[in-house]
Design a protein that fits this description.
heterodimer, A: alpha/beta, 6-stranded mixed sheet, 9 helices, globular, B: two-stranded antiparallel sheet, binds adenosine-5'-triphosphate, binds magnesium ion
Amino acid sequence: MAEPLIRMTNIRKSYGRVQALEDANFHVNEREIVGLLGDNGAGKSTLIKVLSGAVPLTSGDIFIRGKKVSLRSTSDAIAHGIETIYQDSALVTQLSIARNLFLGREPIKPPRFLNRMDQEAMNTVARDLLKQVGISKNIPPTTPIGSLSGGERQAVAIARAMHFDSDLIILDEPTNNLGVAETQGVLSFVRSARDSGHSCIFIAHNIHHVFQVVDRIVVMRRGKVVADDIDPKTTSVAEVERIITGMSDKEIRDAITDGKPSH
Amino acid sequence: MENHSLVPRLIARPEFGPFVLLVVEIAVFWSFNHDFLSPQNISNTLAFTVELGLIALAMTLLMTSGEFDLSVGSLFGFSPVLMWTLFNSGLTSLEAGFVAALLVAAFIGLVNGWFVTQLKIPSFLVTLGMLLVVRGTALFVTDGFPQRTWSAEGSWLAEALVGDFFIGPFRIYMSLFWFIAAAIALGYVLTQSRTGNWIQAAGGNPSAARARGVNVSGVKIGLFVLSSVMASLAGVISSLRTSAANPNSGTGYELEVIAMVVIGGTALTGGRGTIIGTVLGILILRVMRNGIVLIGVPGLAYNIFIGAIILGMMALHSWLERRHQAGT
Ligand SMILES: Nc1ncnc2c1ncn2[C@@H]1O[C@H](COP(=O)(O)OP(=O)(O)OP(=O)(O)O)[C@@H](O)[C@H]1O
Ligand SMILES: [Mg+2]
């Protein structure tokens, strides 16, 4: 079997006496959208924070394409091709779309010693990218992020991850507080990211949203991964809901294998 | 938004309010007293304006990055005292004393930046502490007395910084050109360079900037150094022009400078800054001080007007900001 893009083994994370992750095992394959589900406090956000370098793990290993890595900060993770998208926090509201897209990697116009940004190039690329992620409205790339809607902001963040070739794009509850049209927008950004070769982790409480985009569903409960190979095409929403709310391991196995839990 | 016509776009700019205020101010003072626009009055006003202005330009960048510096007034007083003390004691030439004063200022900026970024202490507290240390040192080494200042005429340093000449009836000091050069250079840095993008990001959303690999601490430390060095330079220029080095000079300048910057439209909370706005803010406050005296309002009433301008401008900026956020 080919090495997955990301493999996390026996991940433990404790906040003081709270054990947020207990020997969690998790992986993401190349070109795959994984839906990460679980009740409140199950440990989903903690797992992806460990993966995005936002919090240090207590013990466990992370491998990228089979190579062990240590992710000490979010910029570490980004350098390894892991990009996390939060609804607001990853963008600077005062700066324009184009300036946000290229923040930290601004192209320079020669002569280099003048340190001058190539703003035309930035705007041109930004305009293309916005079209690619499916923002149909004609929003100029010079628009400040502050005047975009929540869904549009995430589109910008996804566009950025795609442009800089992140291997893995993580979205933690991207559809919260979004309207119907914007939610569909975000879902289609996720699909277009996969179609151009990226992998995604998609966390959402709305199972229907998850079912619409993901290739595989992983369920967490009380800091553990309790099911990691649920196929949304052959499993019903009701079954997944039952797994999330918790049954014995045997019942879960039954639910996944024959689709008829003995409840 | 691109199809808006020119006039509403001009009005929406943060510099528009300050610009109108400046024009009104000048018109009112001039209508009361035509001497207000006399070459002599303009020359006199400009001489000191650019000295404070140098500090305000650096403060604009620092405030855009989300920090500010209360120690600038104390450095304005301390640096010339240090330069003249070194020179009078025969330890260094005037030029070497000048370089030493700038280096000490840079070090002070470094310490400010280190406390703010590494120990995570708010810049308000760090630079307030530094204000007391620097001002206290200036008073201590001089026993509170002004330093003897040799008339610096003929020294190339004095010529380069405050050499004066006449353009028509206007008496112009070299410092005006340094101010213009600094305004252009820092305006360029803020709006055109990638450093400017990092400065704005550092003030607007530091954790997002850090995640993109921007060295937020480095940017801020650099700006603290710039702020200290500019305050030091301004103090030396003022001292050479007036042939005085008083350990108390510069008292209260920090607040006047911050007022100039925010009146111009730079956000106190960081993320957005404008050098053009700051230049307007500098002129607004200096014209106000000069005009009030000239039309016969008691100078002691000056602060009433300054306070009113600050409040009025803040109200305007916050209104524009809300309209902006609403996406109009
Ligand atoms: N900073 C923290 N300090 C202490 N405990 C924490 C912290 N962050 C999370 N926890 C705890 O860790 C556990 C897992 O939290 P986590 O945020 O990962 O859950 P989640 O699955 O994302 O839940 P939700 O669906 O509500 O977002 C919870 O019990 C939570 O209280
Ligand atoms: Mg969560």
